[in-house]
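Morning F.,

Quick status update on the modeling queue. The single chain you submitted on Monday has been processed. Sequence for confirmation:
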Amino acid sequence: MNDAPTKDYRPGWIQDFLISVVFLTRLPVPLDIKFSMAAVGSASRCFPLVGVIVGGISGAVFYGAILLNLPLLLCAFLALAAQVVLTGALHEDAIGDVADGFGGGATKDKKLEIMRDSRVGTYAVVTLILVMGMKAAVLSSFNDPNIAFSVIVSSAVASRGMLTWGMYLLAPASDNGLGASAGKPALITALWALFFTILLPLLVLGPFLGSIGILAAIVGAVLISGIALRQIGGQTGDVLGSIQQFAELFFLIALSAVIT
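Structure tokens below.
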């Protein structure tokens, strides 16, 4: 996540998109407006659009690796590596923290304390191995580079749209941190995010495959959200990142089951 100085933030589509890119990626952005967590709340309507960039670059890496006749599993790991580089492992770090906190804490306060700890525990390591391994296994099942590219882009879009709805529907679990400082997006912001979350996968994959992927992403997001509500009573930045990871994983698994 980058910091950006100077001018006051004024809502607008271009500004919101740039704020979203700064927040969700490590891509250099010539941003001349002041970055704040309050701005992220409004900018979250553009989260799915950032998925086009992340998914597009990751999908292009997969596509190129296939054209080089590399093993499909290696193609998958290269695509995932591209995502990690682009995002600075933002969401992977989040799901690791959630795994450590939910798995190692006996009380809500202890869970939140562990999630804030920068050290990595056994639960995080095992969870990351499983999640990344499952993603790689699923991606390696797509031997058509065109289909693989479309699925990667669509899953990146839909999963980031779930972030906005996590912010809108789940109350912050603590008084500090990203979940509280970003605030609850306005309904119109969440609806714009939903519009892009639905429209782009349907355009890229078609109505049938797109609908299956979107529904699967919603199931994944609802599942981790329900676990978070039970464990700590709401969302944090780490929970939101985990929502993205679960939504993306479920999207990929669903499409693999239908296509392959």
